[in-house]
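REQUEST ID: PR-0412
SUBMITTED BY: lab tech R.K.
PRIORITY: routine
TASK: structure prediction, single protein chain
INPUT:
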Amino acid sequence: MQSFAPVQLKELVPAALNPEADINAVLSGLKKYSDSADTVVAVYVNRRVRLALDAIVVPALRVAEVWLFGALSEDARRWFLIGDLLREKAFHEFTYPT
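STATUS: complete
OUTPUT:
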């Protein structure tokens, strides 16, 4: 079965660009999508950071799904995927094919 949905990409920028940025601020910024009930949001975690799943605060949003993803290794061979944050905060790890 195939399904199609609009995807909105966001980024937790590297600390060198904005050391004050955090994942909760990025998620809070999604509140502006007030009429996007079918949109899937994917947030690229583009920095070395330890994400405490219980510390991630997802505000009330009008989007379909929210996912986090990023590299686990410096060579970008190991990646993580967390989501859907609106329903559960499940952590998945995968290897990117080379």
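NOTES: The CA atoms of residues 32 and 56 lie 19 Å apart.
REVIEWED BY: pending
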